[in-house]
Design a protein that fits this description.
Distance between the termini: 61 Å
Domain Acyl-coenzyme A oxidase N-terminal: 24-152
Domain Acyl-CoA oxidase C-terminal: 491-669
Active site: 440 (proton acceptor)
Number of strands: 11
Binding site for FAD: 158, 197
CATH topology of the domain at 122-287: Butyryl-CoA Dehydrogenase, subunit A, domain 2
Bound molecules: stearoyl-coenzyme A, flavin-adenine dinucleotide
Protein name: Acyl-coenzyme A oxidase
CATH architecture of the domain at 122-287: Beta Barrel
């Protein structure tokens, strides 16, 4: 969408909001897109795809059957890819690979296929698995056909019995040197693969994670490329049982599936062998680090962080514009009803969500850069950065999906009753966002991985060993309870450091005490695990604050943009500090009087940011079609649009529905 111009129509409330913007909106748009060229690229992509009538949904998906919804989204998903592969114009405009990545992983992709793209897993996990886990030869064999869409794959790891505990997976791949094949089996019902997106009816291939057996020894889980359906008839292969798992809370057109194997044979070359290998005679060659088999998950966890804040961007854009258009109650008796955005409580719901978007953006960018560095180093044979990237990607995946999931729900609630309507699009944004709390590693489990890293790093620090960058602050930093506190942004980051390092020290100590009393480490760990997850969350919150402050202070920005980002950054920190004040009070990182000052400042910040709330969400530059909401369009024409959408209900096709004659009338007239 082009930047808003004063000549474009919008309702008077929004016109008023847009009159005095204190900062350069395009600069913010470019910052979040990754530069002006990227903004240009995104707008071209949006323009090109959204003007195509094939992507319109004449009937809202809610009125379609389960089967028709799937068929409709599959139609659009395939059309999208065909457009890429066949249309020279689009390839010139956006470039093939980068364009597809942008399409699937962006708001645009979400707008084109509304309730889950059946091809998403093909691009998000199947292709990255081949790239990340396959040898050069395997990439040459599979990538071309997969990119062209000749074969469609998914990532089949989770089973009915185990999603989290990967070492517990039951599917087996047993090597038979006499035929140089692996034999795949699902030894029980709990071994059935369960959940993979696109597995039900769309994919004809999958990367299957299975326990590898060679020479009668189990070597742990490894990735295999497995053909599931005939390439011509799409019938499932003999020995493969595959289907869809049924309706979900959301993402209902992703055809999440189940899969079982009965003595199903695949060639040796189908094991992805970049890191571990099985030689012709069955000899197993170990990887440099056995967790490299989990590499695709690390990549997707980082991608999810970006997706999380983009979902929140949609929700907060809808809710903020609506809050500027909606008038309710009286602030002053007898005065006109104010915009609900003028209520401080409403600002407290929405403006911290706006700040969160920047916080997650800067932190995700850092984790992505570190991930890229790791990828480069892996090529050189070094796994040194792996634990740092694993902990950061687990932690930020958990924090971003949690914050975005709850943030979207706050936005939905902030729209009152109308936020409950499907046509607001907030329910669908919520169900897609909240799914990320579970998939790609359930968040509690992710926090526990971070905690494991924190405790280990703390112990290493105590022994004088050097630490990775993100945890280097764990080297003890006792807070002075008497000194006057520095409450600047930097000062608050220091307070965070001090509070979190004390918390980690205390709980590492608690863990040790349990062990000293004779408890086995694993039981001691379980006894401390609530507190350990809290340490992990506090550590990652500190990390996002640190990244936010660092970027606001070091990026090249105009004065207006720096000023608004500084205030958002401050609001973000104060919001979380006041919500978790016990953490800061108990080690003396902040005093009660400091918290009181910060609480006062929170009100001042909300009032100072209120006039730019709509301008900020406008700067996110989310296309109306990507918002797909009766409440959030740029023009603010909320009520007419809601009425129009209601008219699309099939129940409104006739004045009196058939069900009246069948059920209601006999009841109502039964006494006649
Ligand atoms: C191309 C387009 C891109 C566009 C993107 C667009 C994005 C939008 C996305 C929307 C689309 C929808 C997609 C939906 C995708 C969902 C797919 C799935 O859920 S798939 C299914 C997802 N499923 C899950 O995520 C399952 C979650 N579960 C797990 O990952 C594992 O079971 C575990 C990590 C919890 C434990 O593993 P376990 O083997 O028991 O290990 P221990 O605990 O015993 O720790 C031993 C040591 O290993 C270490 N270490 C561990 N992992 C790693 C690692 N990765 N690395 C390095 N190290 C690692 C650990 O730190 C420890 O170190 P130390 O302390 O000894 O030094
Ligand atoms: C929409 C969606 C899409 C998905 N797509 C795919 C896909 O494409 N491919 C695929 O392979 N999988 C997919 N999954 C599966 C997903 O990755 C798993 O559901 C997820 O990893 C969680 O595993 P689980 O379901 O076994 O939960 P469980 O591990 O059974 O979790 C249940 C509860 O137990 C707790 N718990 C479990 N272990 C521990 C522990 N060690 N310590 C403390 N608490 C613990 C959890 O915190 C949680 O509260 C998808 C799931 C969803 C919802």
């Amino acid at each position: 969408m082009a930047p808003p111009t004063s000549s474009r129509y919008c309702v008077p409330d929004l016109r008023k909001e847009r009159k005095n913007c204190s900062f350069n909106q395009e600069e913010i748009t470019n910052l979040l897109d990754g530069g002006p060229e990227q903004t240009d690229f995104r707008r071209k992509l949006e323009d090109y795809f959204l003007k195509d009538p094939e992507f319109l949904d004449p009937i809202p998906p809610e009125y379609l059957s389960h089967e028709d919804r799937y068929a409709n989204e599959l139609r659009k998903a395939c059309y999208m890819i065909r457009k890429f592969n066949e249309d020279e114009e689009v390839q010139q405009v956006v470039g093939e690979m980068e364009g597809i990545r942008r399409l699937i992983g962006s708001g645009l992709g979400v707008a084109l296929t509304k309730d889950g793209n059946p091809l998403a897993l093909h691009y998000v996990m199947f292709l990255p698995s081949i790239m990340g886990q396959g040898t050069i030869d395997q990439q040459a064999e599979w990538m071309g056909r997969a990119w062209a869409g000749e074969i469609i794959g998914t990532y089949a790891q989770t089973e009915l019995g185990h999603g989290t505990f990967l070492r517990g997976l039951e599917t087996t791949a047993t090597y038979d040197p006499s035929t140089q094949e692996f034999i795949l089996n699902s030894p029980s019902i709990t071994a059935a693969k369960w959940w993979p997106g696109g597995l039900g009816k769309t994919a004809n291939y999958a990367v299957v994670m299975a326990q590898l057996y060679t020479k009668d020894v189990c070597r742990g889980i490894h990735p295999f490329i497995v053909q599931l359906r005939d390439e011509d008839t799409h019938q499932s292969m003999p020995g493969v049982i595959v289907g869809e798992i049924g309706p979900r809370l959301g993402m209902n057109t992703n055809d999440n599936g189940f899969l079982l194997f009965k003595n199903y044979r695949i060639p040796r070359k189908n094991m992805l062998m970049k890191y571990s290998q099985v030689l012709e005679d069955g000899t197993y060659v170990k990887p440099p680090n056995e967790k490299l088999a989990y590499g695709t998950m690390v990549f997707v966890r980082v991608a999810i962080c970006f997706d999380a804040y983009r979902q929140l961007q949609r929700a907060v854009t809808i809710a903020t514009r609506y809050a500027a258009v909606r008038h309710q109650s009286e602030l002053v008796p007898g005065a006109p009803e104010p915009q609900i955005l003028d209520y401080q409580t409403q600002q407290y719901k929405l403006i911290p969500q706006i700040a969160t978007i920047f916080a997650i953006h800067f932190a995700s960018q850092h984790v992505w850069d570190t991930y890229q560095q790791l990828t480069g180093e892996l090529h050189e044979g070094s796994v040194e950065l792996l634990p740092e990237v694993h902990a950061l990607s687990c932690g930020l995946k958990a924090l971003s999906s949690n914050d975005a999931g709850f943030g979207v729900e706050i936005c939905r609630l902030a729209c009152g009753g109308h936020g409950y309507l499907a046509s607001s699009n907030l329910p669908r944004i919520y169900t897609s966002t909240t799914a990320a709390i579970t998939y790609e590693g359930e968040n509690t489990v992710m926090w526990l991985q971070v905690a494991r890293y924190l405790v280990k790093s703390f112990r290493e620090a105590s022994q004088g060993q050097p630490l990775h960058k993100s945890v280097s602050y764990l080297v003890a930093q006792p807070a002075s309870t008497h000194a006057k506190k520095d409450l600047s942004n930097r000062g608050l980051v220091e307070a965070y450091k001090s509070a979190v390092s004390s918390m980690v020290a205390e709980n590492a100590g608690r863990l040790q005490q349990y062990c000293d009393k004779g408890e086995k480490f694993e039981h001691a760990w379980n006894n401390c695990s609530v507190l350990l997850t809290q340490c992990a969350e506090a550590h990652i919150r500190f990390f996002t604050c640190d990244m936010f402050v660092h970027n606001v202070e070091t990026l090249e920005l105009s004065d207006g943009v720096r000023s608004i980002l500084r205030r958002l950054c401050r609001l973000y920190m104060i919001y979380h500090i006041t919500l978790n004040q016990g953490l800061f009070l108990r080690n003396g990182a902040l005093a009660a009087s400091d918290i009181s000052i910060l609480e006062g400042e929170l009100s001042v910040l909300l009032a100072s940011l209120r006039p730019d709330a709509v301008n900020l969400v406008d700067a996110f530059d989310v296309h109306d079609r990507v918002l797909d909401s009766t409440l959030g369009n740029w023009d603010g024409n909320v009520y007419e649009r809601m009425y129009e959408e209601a008219m699309k209900s099939p129940l409104n096709k006739t004045d009196v529905p058939q069900a009246y004659y069948k059920y209601l009338r006999p009841l109502m007239k039964s006494n006649l």
